[in-house]
Amino acid sequence: MSPRTGTAARTGQYAALACYLVFLAFPFLWLISTAFKPARELGSLHPTWLPEDPTLGNFRQAFGEQPLLRAAANSLTAALCAALITVVIATPMAYVMARHRGRLSTAATGWVVISQAFPFVLVIIPLFLVLKNLHLINSLWGLIMVYVVWSLPFALWMLAGYVRAVPRELEEAAAVDGAGRIRTLVSVTAPLLAPGIVATALFAFITAWNEFFFALVLLKTPEKQTLPVVLTHFLGAEGVADLGPLAAAAFLATLPSLLVFALIQKRVTGGLTAGAVKH
User: Fold this and answer.
1) pTM (predicted TM-score)
2) Which end of the chain is more exposed for a tag (fewer CB within 10 A), N or C?
């Protein structure tokens, strides 16, 4: 391949990547623009890309009409607890799946694949009955349990891949030094799994933060509703959306996920075992 051909290929790749990024960012950028537009511009037959007369009135109206802070606190509690519990349960289970091949590992892998094919509507009735018998309907802890169970299969599959990437030589060296399996997992394997654990926790957090259907069905009182459910309150009785306040509230709802990802993205993309073993 000539240098000119290589340069053209790279230019084409960068152009395709730029187009893809614009495609992904457009809905979010349009949401921000809508959040700062006054009612006059939102009702215009010829909408503009940027607000001509930016205003914070939509944000004031959103906070005045709905308890967004309380709903955000509920969502944050559910998402953080679900992410923490999912990681604590998934880490040792993923280690077993990755290190001990057998019927248990095969069954667990099959469960992961099958569980991801279940639609929400299919499981909501038996799930509702189970939580009702446990007196966990209209409870954040009941919702957290649902989020953990729903996130766990993918978290197991995700962490098992990271465990397989950890060299067995490190665990064998720890065993030679007298460390048991639990000590090896805690002191040797778990620190090397930090990028995978962070990525799994991020997945569980974002899944719980954005989830709507389970929260809508299981939480009844307004004081316990999560942010995605409260956002539906900006829809009128006939399904007409109050676009300005809705866009403002939706914009604020996206910020925690973006901030969490921005803070830990280096750990997610970092090397898994860089420098751990010398060849």
Assistant:
1) 0.81
2) C
